[in-house]
């Protein structure tokens, strides 16, 4: 190729580049499932996900604060499909599946990946942890709060027993398979990666169950000695955890699965964690 031909090709290439720079390419709208951006820390910005439901699912709550917001959200999320306690086993194998091993689930407090087949009541098994302790309102395992997937999670049998019905607070000592969780005589502190998850599950329960059906009115308070009363603490600590540990990709995925595949209702504090401060 001659020098003159090379020059002609360079000129042509420059012209094409200039035209491409001036073009505005069409944008592709994201679907709700893919609308969430992920940060470098693994936490997610919930704005895009929440916006997908603000004009529909949450339409009656947008713009409200305080008691009015809590009342509106209760009316939205209370109409869930209830599942049996036995059905919870299979549901947790889907909602809490290990993203790196489809044969396993991730245990809530321990962070351990354990085989889905090891569900049961023996040492080495995982069972169904009620994040809002059953005794705090004495609702048992009947369909309703006792089977609500928004607060039921897989956990090691022995770790579940160690947590018992303790309220949530900071401090305590480590234990076998703790994964960084701590406990003392009257409280339990989950590992850092799920502190926000725990807070949002407890506060979901407080909005979903308001005593206008056959279940008790569940409410958060700032105590760690709640026992069998329908309260769970400590609210001040739960609010801090909600701020410190924003919704993760796995938490949002779980919320979506419960909504679309099982109960037909959402945890509003995963979609809008700022609503915690608006209400409490």
Tally of strands: 12
Termini Cα gap? 76 Å
Element string (H = helix, E = strand): HEEHHHEEEEEHEEEHEEHHHH
Strand content: 5-15%
Strand order of the largest sheet: 3-4-5
Protein name: Ribonuclease
Signal peptide: 1-29
Biased composition (Low complexity): 170-183
Pfam families: Endonuclease_1 (PF04231)
Write up this protein.
It is a single chain. The protein has 280 residues and is of the alpha+beta class. It contains 10 helices and 12 strands. The chain has helices at residues 3-22, 47-54, 66-77, 85-95, 157-163, 195-208, 235-244, 249-262, 268-271, 275-279; strands spanning 37-38, 44-45, 97-98, 101-106, 113-115, 126-130, 152-156, 167-168, 182-183, 187-189, 219-220, 231-232. The strands form 5 sheets. A 3-stranded antiparallel beta sheet has the order 3-4-5. The protein has a 3-stranded mixed beta sheet with strand order 8-10-9, with no helix packed on it. A two-stranded antiparallel sheet has the order 1-2. The longest helix has 20 residues, at 3-22.
Features:
Endonuclease-I; globular; 280 residues; 10 helices; nuclease activity; 38% helix; alpha+beta
What is this structure's SSE topology?
Blueprint: H1 3-22, E1 37-38, E2 44-45, H2 47-54, H3 66-77, H4 85-95, E3 97-98, E4 101-106, E5 113-115, E6 126-130, E7 152-156, H5 157-163, E8 167-168, E9 182-183, E10 187-189, H6 195-208, E11 219-220, E12 231-232, H7 235-244, H8 249-262, H9 268-271, H10 275-279
Parallel strand pairs: 8-10, 11-12
Antiparallel strand pairs: 1-2, 3-4, 4-5, 6-7, 9-10
């Amino acid at each position: 190729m001659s020098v003159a031909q090379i020059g002609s090709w360079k000129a042509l290439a420059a012209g094409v580049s200039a035209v491409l720079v001036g073009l505005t390419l069409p944008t592709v709208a994201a679907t709700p499932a893919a609308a969430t951006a992920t940060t470098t820390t693994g936490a997610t910005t919930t704005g895009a996900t929440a916006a997908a439901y603000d004009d529909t699912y949450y339409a009656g709550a947008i713009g409200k604060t305080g008691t009015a917001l809590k009342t509106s959200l209760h009316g939205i999320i209370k109409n869930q499909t209830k599942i049996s306690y036995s059905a919870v086993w299979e549901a947790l194998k889907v909602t809490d599946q290990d993203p790196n091993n489809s044969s396993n689930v991730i245990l809530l407090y321990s962070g351990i990946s354990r085989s889905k087949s090891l569900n049961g009541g023996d040492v080495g098994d995982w069972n169904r942890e009620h994040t809002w302790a059953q005794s705090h309102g004495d609702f048992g395992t009947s369909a309703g709060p006792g089977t609500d997937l928004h607060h039921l999670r897989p956990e090691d049998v022995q770790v579940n027993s160690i947590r018992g019905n303790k309220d949530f607070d900071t401090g305590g000592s480590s234990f076998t398979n703790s994964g960084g969780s701590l406990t003392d005589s009257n409280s339990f502190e989950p590992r850092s990666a799920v502190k926000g998850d725990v807070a949002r599950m407890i506060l979901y329960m407080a909005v979903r169950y308001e005593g206008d059906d056959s279940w008790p009115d569940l409410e958060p308070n700032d105590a760690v000695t709640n026992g069998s009363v329908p309260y769970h603490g400590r609210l001040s600590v739960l609010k801090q955890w909600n701020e410190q540990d924003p919704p993760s990709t796995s938490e949002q995925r779980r919320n979506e699965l419960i909504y679309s595949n099982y109960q037909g209702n959402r945890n509003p504090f995963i979609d809008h964690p700022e609503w915690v401060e608006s209400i409490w």
